[in-house]
Amino acid sequence: MTICAEVIAIGDEITSGSRLDTNSQWLASQFGDLGVRTLYHSSVGDDFDACVDVFRIAIGRSDYIVMTGGLGPTQDDLTRKAIAAATDRPIEIRQEALDHIQSFFVGREMPDRNRLQAEFPQGSRLIHNPHGTAPGIDLTVERPGRPDCHVFCLPGVPAEMRQMWNAGVAVRMRELLGVQRVVRQHVVKCFGVGESDMESRIADLLDRKQTPQVGITVNRATISLRIFAEGSDEADCQSQIDRVTESLQQRVGEFIFGAGDDFELQDAVIELLDRRGETLCCVEHGFNSLADTWLSACERPDLYRGGLSLSDQRASNRWRSVLGIPQNGSPEQWTAEVMERFDADWALAIDGYPTIVPEEGKTNPSSDIRLVVTGRKLATPRSLTFHMGGHPDVLPPRIGKAGLNFLRQVLLAN
């Protein structure tokens, strides 16, 4: 039977969208390091009945649960009473917890409401909090005919929560798990193919019954293929990952540009330049150009010499005069001149990002985009023209990525 975990974030600030829930992301990764897969993320506001419902559902479907938030001293801190109600247990004051809380009020009177933080569901353990007045809760819930469910309640303050996880919850879980299972993830990044086309090419690998499992997500035209391997040790997991990545290379290798959550097309370009000992500059025409911004963030001035972002015709005309480019100068002329001025080995031109006038419910009409790559080792520049339209939030990143991907392909071929 697969052991699964659930992470629950508690608080109106989470469900209202006023605060980003980073705790759940971090906790899910910690479960993974322990060999336990997180199948559910839940969020619930500061409502007693809603909290009880969420807790009961989680206990019914998950083996390990971590809840964050709702352990403060105010009226909207409902975790203690809600978890007690969800498990049909009375509340009791723990003197150990009360002594700890009172230690934070040396020289002044402790408010009566802080006594709430010493309340625990009967039969639960205390998780020590060295930095705050909110001790955590460790509760084992029996489930007839099934393994016990283990519930851990931690404060929502990230620094306190992480300390208590590392010193308390993680240690306890290793004891409960006995033989530690290993779970590893590997992300393959792709560009240049649509999600439905990608899915049709690797449909059998996406079958949820397969081992290891493969998931597909898309963010602004970049496709991430996430391989989830579970095994007895690191070598077992790596063998599974290697098998899938080899299959992906055979089927969709022309679209794969790298691996890792944070690896992007500009990183792939910089890696190629580094390997070749060559340098790059770029020139972009149009509104909201992005390639220069992304490449500059790579912090490799020895490889990326910089570029020009010409947002409108006035900027373009000004630089035409400076560089001596004719009024009707082509992207090839721009790349050749910029490459010389920046003393680079390669130049990329993206011509151009369309002017975007956002209108509710509308997308930008398709327009011609021209990409040009000029290099000192190329006899003639390489160019590509295509049509692209789309939502204002998506269109500029797609165009910038198309330019970087075209450059990457030219570098690989030469």
Automatic annotation (TrEMBL):
Coiled coil feature spans: none
InterPro entries: CinA, CinA_KH, Competence-induced_CinA, MoaB/Mog-like_dom_sf, MoaB/Mog_dom
Domain MoaB/Mog, residue spans: 6-175
Pfam families tied to this protein: CinA_KH, MoCF_biosynth
Protein name: Competence-damage inducible protein
Organism (species): Rosistilla ulvae
Gene that this sequence comes from: cinA
